[in-house]
TrEMBL record:
The keyword Hydrolase applies. One of its GO terms (molecular function) is hydrolase activity, acting on carbon-nitrogen (but not peptide) bonds, in cyclic amides. The lineage of its organism: Bacteria, Bacillati, Bacillota, Clostridia, Eubacteriales. It comes from the Bacteria. Keywords: Hydrolase, Metal-binding. GO terms for cellular component: cytosol. Belongs to the metallo-dependent hydrolases superfamily. Hydantoinase/dihydropyrimidinase family. Residues 50-432 form the Amidohydrolase-related domain. This is Dihydropyrimidinase. Carbamylation allows a single lysine to coordinate two divalent metal cations. Its cofactor is Zn(2+). It comes from Formimonas warabiya. NCBIfam families: D-hydantoinase (TIGR02033). Transmembrane segments: none annotated. The modification N6-carboxylysine is found at residue 151.
Amino acid sequence: MAILLKNGSIAAENGVREADLLLQDEKIVQIGAGLKPGLDTEVIDCAGKYILPGIIDAHVHFHMPCGPSERTIDDFYSGSVAAACGGVTTVIDYVEPENDQGPLEAVAARKKEADGAICIDYGLHYVVNRWEEKLFESWEQVIDSGLASFKVFTTYDSSRLPYEDVAKLLAWSKKRGVLVTVHAEEDDIIQAAKKELTREGHLQPAYHGKSRPVESEAAAVKKIIALAGETGSRVYFVHISTCEAAQLIGQAQKEGKQILGETCPHYLVLGDEVYAGADPQWYIMCPPLREKEKQPFLWSALKEGVFSVVASDHCAFSKEQKGRSRTFFETLSGIPGVETLLPVMYAYGVAPGQITMTRLVELLSTNPARLFGLYPQKGVIRTGSDGDIVVFDPQKEVELSYHRLHSKAGYSPFKDMHVKGCPEITVLRGKVIYRGEQFCGAKGYGKFVPGRI
Ligand code: URP
Ligand code: ZN
Ligand code: ZN
Ligand code: ZN
């Protein structure tokens, strides 16, 4: 069975053009004007619609362990159903080895959780959460097994890597060509803020934002850029929330350093006033939401190319999980977002003219594919690439309330938004997996896609 997409506007990294697109045997096989269907071809009329390469959400946490007894609420099945309904055809999740696990064992265990459950394609980043010289050799094997990027945290008791170890990893990554991604928040500043809030008796979820001040992100970004500069290594900062950090990243780029940045829709459209609202715990994520007044600077950084990727950091917990703790530091941290990534970025980015459609495709598909070693199999509309496609209706209005969404979180941080523009059809490797507001993919159809350096 082949699929012929007729009369659509193909939005690719290099511009928008009218053309037909033929998908067959999991691949894009032909692009051009006036293509005719063969036998056993489904023709889909895409007049008035955009055709985008499948979205690649480079930052998600499905079925992520949090302490001994908790996991994020979306497993590889429910998370990937939500993704498919939002036009996402590939996610990149994480391998976080436990103390007694060797690196390859941890990779295998994570793949076992995903395979058979996930209904879209996926890649993995490898988290370095402890340091031993002897791990170098297994990391080589981790790379060979298809993980092209590593991740470190400068905060969180469970996974923080001291700066001197980050420096060693950066030096090694330079030799190996692997991309190191960094969660940058300065732990000392966070601990000092927490101490002060404890003294004042301000430990409720409403104080979450105050516990992780702007300076904590900027300070960690500054230190990591300095370390990367010493070795000439490439670094990718995940979920940048502040213009101060964006400025440091932009400055480093001007100096010729290989520093990359990712931000998330919530930092671009939600503000910290929600912490004074009725359900502050729903908006607890790290780093926290910032002042709304500063958002234009983040959008400028996005336009100017300081950020290469926008990803969701989908890390969903149910309302019940979120509501269990009385303090900000015990409340499970993270929000759902994989399904709203594309519609939010279209409605707040493309529709008001903040970014072009071409830039949207770059940020949500082509750049993550390139940076994480999936290009040109993914991230581009080109003959020979995977038949991963979103048919996007720029006119259709939807409400981003949880009733319409598929995460098991049971709430949506974007609940008050009515947006114009949403995915109509999602195709993964030539198979329709979402259409007519219905998920129609199959459990286990998703495959691991090795990232290649
Ligand atoms: O609060 C968040 N973002 N939780 C997910 C883990 C992380 O730091 O990305
Ligand atoms: Zn993080
Ligand atoms: Zn008070
Ligand atoms: Zn994350």
